[in-house]
TrEMBL record:
This is Translin. CDD domains: TRAX. It is found in: Cytoplasm; Nucleus. Pfam families: Translin. Keywords: Cytoplasm, Nucleus.
Length: 299
C-alpha cells in the first residue's frame, strides 16, 4: 500500500468539504493507479523478455554457423577475432544493453524489491540469453561460463552508453547492478546441453563446426562436458522448478552423443584413416540409416 493511499484513509476529523465516500473514492483511485502501474511494468518486461529470447535464438543460430577457433599454445600471440566472432560479440552487446536499459528504467536493482517481484516476467528471456552466451563461451574457450562471468556482463562501466526507450541517452550510476538469479543460470546451462548435442552432430555430419580438423575431438569434448553438466545439475532437480524436465532432455542428449561416440569408434576401426568414409557412414546414421548401436551389440 502506497504512502498516498495510507494517508488518504487515516482516521481523523474529516473536513467539511470531504465526505466519507470521497475518502473511499480517493483510496480506491490510489489502488487503481498502483495496479495499473504494476500491469504496465509487467507487460513491458514480458515484451522485453520476448525480444531478448528472439535475439538470443538468432545469436545461437549464428554461433552454429561459426567454425571453432584454431587451438593456440600458451606462448602464441593473441589471436585476432574473425568477422563472424565480431558479429557474435555485437549481438551479445545488443542483448546486454537491452537488459541493462529495461532493468534501470523499471528499477530492477539488486537492493530493491522490484527485482524479486518481477523476476519471473524477464526470466524466460534471461534463460535463453544465458544459453546463448554459454554456448559462445564454450566455442571460444572450451569450457562453461560461470555465474560470476555472466553477472559481470551487466556491470555498469564508465564507458557504458545506453539509449533509453525515449531515444535519449541514459546516465546509469555505477552502483546500479541487475542481479542474475542463480536458478536462471542453472536452467540456462541445462538448456545449453541441447545446443552442444547439435554442435557435435553437425561437426560429424559436415554442417556447422566443419572448420575443426578433428570432429572426433569435438564429440569427446562435448560428451565430457555433457556428463559433467548432468551430474552437477542433478542435486537441483528437487530445488529448481522445471529442472526435472530439463534433466530428462539432457539425458536424451547425452545418450545420443554416447551413441555417436560409440559409432565413431566402430567406424574408425572399420575404415581406418579414410575420414571421408567415416563421415559418410556417420551421416547415414544421423539420418536414421542402418548402423550398429550399443543396444545392438548387447543383444
Amino acid at each position: 500500500m502506497t504512502a498516498a493511499v495510507e494517508s488518504s484513509i487515516q482516521v481523523g476529523e474529516p473536513s467539511s468539504a470531504v465526505t466519507r465516500s470521497q475518502q473511499f473514492a480517493s483510496a480506491f483511485d490510489g489502488y487503481r493507479s498502483e495496479i495499473d502501474a504494476h500491469n504496465d511494468r509487467r507487460e513491458r518486461l514480458i515484451k522485453t523478455s520476448r525480444d531478448v529470447t528472439n535475439l538470443s535464438k538468432k545469436l545461437i543460430f549464428h554461433l552454429h554457423r561459426m567454425p571453432p577457433p584454431t587451438p593456440t599454445a600458451a606462448n602464441d600471440p593473441p589471436r585476432q577475432p574473425t568477422k563472424m566472432e565480431k558479429e557474435a560479440q555485437s549481438k551479445i552487446d545488443e542483448i546486454v544493453n537491452i537488459v541493462k536499459r529495461v532493468a534501470y528504467e523499471e528499477d530492477l536493482d539488486r537492493i530493491g524489491q522490484q527485482c524479486i517481484r518481477y523476476e519471473r516476467n524477464l526470466g524466460g528471456g534471461l534463460e535463453e540469453f544465458i544459453e546463448a552466451i554459454s554456448f559462445h563461451h564454450f566455442l571460444l574457450h572450451g569450457k562453461l561460463i560461470t555465474l560470476e562471468e555472466v553477472q559481470d556482463l551487466f556491470i555498469i562501466s564508465p564507458s557504458t552508453s545506453i539509449v533509453g526507450s525515449n531515444g535519449q541517452p541514459l546516465t546509469i550510476p555505477a552502483t546500479f547492478l541487475f542481479p542474475v538469479p542463480s536458478h536462471r543460470y542453472l536452467l540456462g546451462i541445462s538448456d545449453l546441453t541441447g545446443e552442444l548435442m547439435r554442435f557435435a552432430t553437425n561437426a560429424l555430419g559436415g554442417g556447422g563446426g566443419k572448420g575443426t580438423s578433428d570432429p572426433a575431438s569435438v564429440v569427446r569434448s562435448v560428451l565430457s562436458l555433457l556428463r559433467e553438466i548432468r551430474e552437477a545439475l542433478e542435486p537441483f532437480t528437487f530445488l529448481v522448478q522445471d529442472m526435472r524436465k530439463k534433466q530428462a532432455v539432457t539425458t536424451q542428449s547425452l545418450r545420443k552423443i554416447e551413441d555417436l561416440s560409440y559409432q565413431l569408434s566402430i567406424r574408425t576401426s572399420e575404415f581406418g584413416g579414410d575420414e571421408k568414409a567415416v563421415r559418410e557412414m556417420l551421416r547415414r546414421a544421423l539420418e536414421g540409416g542402418s548402423g550398429p548401436s550399443r543396444d545392438d551389440e548387447d543383444e
